[in-house]
Design goal:
5 helices; five-stranded mixed beta sheet; 225 residues; Ribosomal Protein S5, domain 2; alpha/beta; 12 strands
Length: 225
């Protein structure tokens, strides 16, 4: 397995995009060990997506494994993306990094002592940014020791102002979630007018949310700060 880490200090956040690329090259996939790390907290989460089959576009439910640790140092957030058997595309990695920073800011938490590792246990490549809200909110829940029910999920990204950004393929994603027995799906309350109409599947609760605060409260039953 190849593990790529992105290590961004607090003073480097304004140069986020450039540093993310430079670190990918400079670190060469090496893993880092830190003294004083807490025990890791691991969570397997589901994400909704859309793929293309011989019958056309279909919704999918994919699992990713997220590990969270807190260190005793304050040298900055470190995010590792393990390659193999599956992986996140460059765009998906960038959206995840942004989401973690943005949700942490809304929660008034410092990320400077966090190590987050993400892996994809199935041999696929995940594209886009609609997984980033679920990843960002899950990281904060792990940091705060809150719980997100396994049958609850959100699709969408995190905008700079903390709003949940639009997600595409909602009808297909809801159908896939229903087949996977997901009980509750959170989605952006701002819909793309180009999206086809959708109906709430039987026994599923669909919750439109407009902000990180509302999404976190709905997913965990606790306020974000």
């Amino acid at each position: 397995m190849e593990r790529r880490f992105f290590h961004l200090s607090a003073s480097s956040r304004l140069c986020f995009y450039v540093i993310a690329v430079l670190l990918t090259v400079a670190l060469g996939g090496e893993a880092f060990a830190f003294e004083g790390e807490s025990s890791p907290h691991e969570r397997t989460i589901s994400i909704l997506g859309v793929t293309v089959s011989s019958r056309g576009p279909i919704g999918t439910v994919t699992s990713i494994v997220l590990t969270f640790q807190e260190r005793t140092d304050q040298t900055g957030l470190m995010i590792g993306f393990t390659r193999g058997p599956g992986r996140l595309s460059r765009m998906a990695q960038t959206s995840v990094q942004q989401a973690i920073y943005r949700v942490a800011r809304m929660a008034k938490l410092s990320t400077d002592s966090w190590t987050v590792t993400i892996s994809v246990p199935t041999p696929i490549t995940i594209y886009g940014d609609s997984l980033s809200a679920m990843v960002g909110l899950t990281v904060i829940a792990l940091a705060k020791r809150d719980t997100i029910a396994e049958d609850c999920i959100i699709t969408g990204g995190i905008a700079p102002d903390g709003h949940i950004s639009k997600a595409s393929g909602l009808a297909l994603k809801l159908a896939a979630a229903s087949k996977s027995h997901i009980r509750q799906v959170l989605m952006p309350d701002e819909f793309d007018p180009a999206e086809p109409d959708w109906q709430t599947p039987f026994l599923m609760h669909v919750s439109p949310v407009d902000s990180v605060q509302q999404a976190y409260q709905t997913l965990t039953g606790s306020p974000i700060n």
